[in-house]
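User: Okay, second chain of the day. Same drill as before: sequence in, structure tokens out.
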Amino acid sequence: MSELICVGALAGAFGVHGEVRLKSFTADPLAIADYTPLCREDGTGTFDLQITREINNGFAARVSGVRSKEEADALKGLRLFAPRERLPQLPDDEYYYTDLMGLTVYDAGGVELGKVKAVLNHGAADLLELIVPGKSTTVLLPFTQAVVPTVDLAAGRIVADPPEGLFD
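Assistant: Same drill. Structure tokens below.
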């Protein structure tokens, strides 16, 4: 089985006629429909999507086989996955979030700062959430060219120049 990438999630019913609320995680949110059929994380099930309209925080969509509000509500929380080979190749300075997860982050001097736990985006810019050795809390590192000049996926490492005081 090929590697699966999470491209969206269902957030329950939209209306009473079987439409679902869809959150897209693709760079172009409408492009999620281009990667159908989608499946569950374990590769089971197939879901064809037809986006019907834009709504707050996502889209209203029709999912194959879903005809009622109850069936749509039963899918709430379902994460949708596409095989990696269906996704477009990225330019050298862009990355799929999943590829950054677990990478070790070092400063310019080679000192380990932490490991990437998650990539977050709350609208302004991407943030790398780092698990820092010896700390009980995580650190949010801005994922910008100025702060993170080097991402080496082959070596499994990121080199960062964090803002002063971030790791104190």
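The CA atoms of residues 108 and 159 lie 6 Å apart.

User: Thanks, on to the next one.
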